Amino acid sequence: MLHHFKGKDFLKLADFTPEEVAYFVDTAIELKRKRASGEPFEPLRGKTFAMIFEKLSTRTRVSFQAGAAQLGAQTFYMSPDQMQTSRGEPIRDTARIIDRYCDGLFIRTFGQEVVDEFAQYMRNPVINALTNETHPCQGLCDLMTIREKKGAYKGLKIGYLGDIWNVCHSLMMGAAMMGMDFFAAQPNDTYQPNADQVATAREWAELSGSQIVFTKDLEEVAGGADVIYGNTWHSMATTNPEQRVVDFAPYQVNMRVIEMAKPDVIYMHCLPGTRGEDMVDEVIESKYCVFWDQGENRMHTEKAVMVLTTL
After folding, report:
1. What value does the mean pLDDT take over residues 215-226?
2. 288: number of CA atoms within 13 Å, CB side?
3. Is the N end or the C end of the chain the one with fewer CB atoms within 10 Å?
């Protein structure tokens, strides 16, 4: 292998170089090919992974468990309310014990500092399955899907419509690293991206020759886009849903938005979304929608992370 990832944590995309991120994607594409061909490939047989999910999950939890099983590994779901951390045990104590039992940890939690602390006290890899700040597994999956559908990254434009939160941050970072322009709709100053995330992404964008733009102008976001990326208006930690509907309503992904983009635009979404709110059936059921390929790719990119950080 050209890159050596063994034992490295997967906490956010910015921890890696663009070349390393591309290698994760290359590996995921190869693992998807192996799966489609029926070729046996269980390099993680005998390995065990712990799973801590403090937030609701469908795609991320199932894709991790299915992907690990395909690679020959076993997973153990640890319900947060039944762990001793719920009674006050320090993370550092829990982390060091899990590290003796398992070959890695998948964790979906609230603060980025939680996954960082697990990583600090575990020798085996910690894989971030989502925090309030980042969703690197989704970002990697999105890059794989764009690569499959568009063939390359450089010079593409992504128009992002939805909550400015963890998925936005990771997609923005991946776009900047790979030389894609990233335009996000910002209804008003109430919705601010993480300043540190933006600063890092703009450093990568300067190196790759791309742009990071937040704007209220829908035409500026969607016009000439190669990718329209939708997201819910109500992330798991947000409040005041009624006001969010008012603020984001002009940015619903409908056929008018699709027609602003390039004729061969693809429509992506991390899901779950709300039909009739952030997106409409006409677009979801159209030729532009690649949700289901994108959802499958979540599993293959997570498999790539498991393989490269464990072996």
Report:
1. 98
2. 29
3. N
**Residue-level pLDDT at 39:** 87
> What CATH number is associated with residue 241?
3.40.50.1370
Whether 64 and 104 share a structural domain: yes
Contacts of 142 (CB under 8 A, 6+ apart): 170, 171, 174, 229, 268, 270, 294
Order of strands across the sheet that contains 181-185 = 212-215, 181-185, 157-161, 227-230, 266-269
Residue 211 burial by CB count (10 A; 0-12/13-18/19+): exposed, middle or buried? middle
Does a structural domain hold residue 4? no
Q: Are residues 21 and 86 in the same domain?
A: yes
Residue pLDDT, tens place only, 98-130: 999 999 999 999 999 999 999 999 999 999 999
Q: Is residue 150 located within the same domain as residue 125?
A: no
Query: pLDDT tens digits, residue range 133-175?
Result: 999 999 999 999 999 999 999 999 999 999 999 999 999 999 9
Instruction: Count how many domains the chain has.
Output: 2
Give the number of other CB atoms < 10 A from CB of residue 291.
Answer: 18
Q: Do the Cβ atoms of 109 and 5 come closer than 8 Å?
A: no
Measure Cα distances from 28 to 31, 131, 152 in Å.
5, 22, 15
- pLDDT band of residue 16 (cuts 50, 70, 90) is very high
Containing structural domain, residue 123: 13-134+297-310
303 in the same domain as 225: no
